[in-house]
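Entry 14. Two folds queued back to back today. First construct below, sequence then structure tokens.
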Amino acid sequence: MHFLQFIDKKIYRLLNSSKMLKFFYFYHRLFNNHSENIGFDFSKKKNRKEIIQEIIDKKNYKNYLEIGCFSDELFNYIKCENKVGVDPVSGGTIRKTSDQFFKDNKDKFDCIFIDGLHEYTQVKKDIDNSLNSLNEGGIILLHDCLPNNFYAQAIPRCQYVWNGDVWKAIVECRTKKNLDVYTCYADNGIGVIFKRNNQNLLDHSIENFKKLRFSFYFNDHKKLMNIIEFDELLKLI
């Protein structure tokens, strides 16, 4: 095993250990407590496997890229002519960070699923890099865009079931005139990005999206995230 890969795995285990999660949970309880739930219920919605495969089949996509594969639960399920999976720790076909992969990548993809590090700064880089690697008529999808409560999106991570602050990157993309952005109400929120004119531009003057507070999202999440059902998404692609 390469030394850097060994370090990556050690850090990954440390950051997701129960002791570390408990520490950060009490930290957030002390300084950022916001205990209300929005009330999202994904139990009767399609999962990401079904959604991605149905989109690939409907559009007859040939090239699929997955960022963040881990146990290959999704990657092994997807059927597509050409599949590339990128993860620095495990799973997929390429053992690199997404930054390292995109730096050297020359290929284009029809469907890109982003499920790597769930922190705004990295997610935004993954989106920008994916846009540069997207075929015309392609689609970018992102997991975990609809946190149900503060702790599900808190940075640093404080619980096992965790969305991170991916939602901030979606809000930022919603303000771009050249990106058409939605959030599918399924599987903890599936962000959807098309490289085309924005059909429902979010008019917000925000200087630093990273500093957005959960209360901003909590109070106006339907408008901010442009939430749609899967049937509506199929009509848009």
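Second construct, same run, same settings:
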Amino acid sequence: MPLDRRQFFQASAALGASFALPAPLLAAEKGKERRIDLVSSAFTVALDPSGASRSAVWGFNEQLPGPTLRFRRGERVHLAVKNELPQETAVHWHGLRVPNAMDGVPGVTQHPIATGGRFDYRFELRDSGTFWYHPHQASFEQVPRGLYGALIVEEEKPPSVDRDEVWVLSDMKLDNQRQPVEDFGRILDIANDGRIGNQILVNGLVAGSQRTLTIRSGERLRLRLINAASARFFRLAIDGHEARIIAFDGQGVTPHPLPAGGLALGPGMRVDLIIDCMGSPGQSFPLRDLGRPPATPTVLGALTYSSQPALRSKPLASAVTLAPNRIAEPDLAKASDHYIIFQGGMRGSPVIGLVDGKPSRIQEIMAKQGLAWTMNYNAQHEHALMHEPLLHLRTGEHVMLHMINETDFLHPMHLHGHFFRVLAVDGKPTPHREWRDTVIMGPRQSIDVAFVADNPGEWMYHCHILDHAAGGMMGTIVVE
């Protein structure tokens, strides 16, 4: 793609929300903006409040995770980000359909925020749901250091619940002194499953039965779960309760129970659960990560019943179905077909990949370039300035995208600026045809998704195992 298009997007970013709004409307709305200041910096926290040690982390507003941002759909926000880190950064609003200039991708939609610098993100919240925010600069390092936070956009008519809780799941790789291991960007992680931490965190604290959510018998709980880990997959199960899934990635789905073998939640993904808590006072039920077989299940936290009298004797009868966001429905009869093939990895076949237009074997790419993955036979460095986009789409085009995984690894694939319907896995129709912005592509598996390309700009499309993204599984899709 010519550099002048990239320069156009970046110039638009410098103008803030004027990229998306006519000047009179911008002037009329500016006074109604809700401003929140976010400062990214280094500090220390006690990951285990019962211990004396403190760990060095990076985060927003000296919180781990960063502050939970709650808004209403249709609200206009001004998120003023200041960088006090020792390296450049930027903030991506994961799952939000924002103007391209506000997407927070250095080298694509904006220049990175220099140390001591700032950037003003302004946009309207088009969609309700469970989202999150994190850097898109050196993400493979900055996210596992602690730079992430939840972003909730309330529905106009939310389901009736007694409590709405957010659990941000993540992990950290710590040494014997409980300090971060400084081994970011290793080719062994890039070319395999990614950098997995040895300490699971729930809302910034060590996971385990002590992470208790105290509830009252008869309560209806909405539990929003966000996987902010850079590479770890969770497989979630809750003992003693029938949890119903009501949303994936912030988008409502026909309510249905958790799968018997646990719910897979890949990096970047979110799920909203409704739990009618009908246990007895004093009982405690763990929420577990079943892990990948033959892993031993890990207790993430627990639902513990207080001694207070029951709030009600039977579950609420009110509906829990979420009103849909306004997303254009793809017309498969007129959709254009596109294919993206994924290859590479440490255990992959000796494929040929292109780096800067030059063909090389994947082993040579790993040794010389620090890359390990190809998309449509190309391996790109993170946010490469002169790469050729994977796809060029027309604004309003109906798109069928076939993803073919020829690797032996899982890849949670994330598309910026759009939601897509997940239609089929290995040619078999999915039971819920759910809207998502991130979908797990299993080893040697194919996934078919469809969407309407109705958000103009150059959009990142990448694996949300952040080491994989840094190692070549990162590209863009242009909507023009």
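Quick look at the second one. Residues 3-14 form the longest helix (12 residues). Residues 8-30 have pLDDT under 50 and may be disordered.
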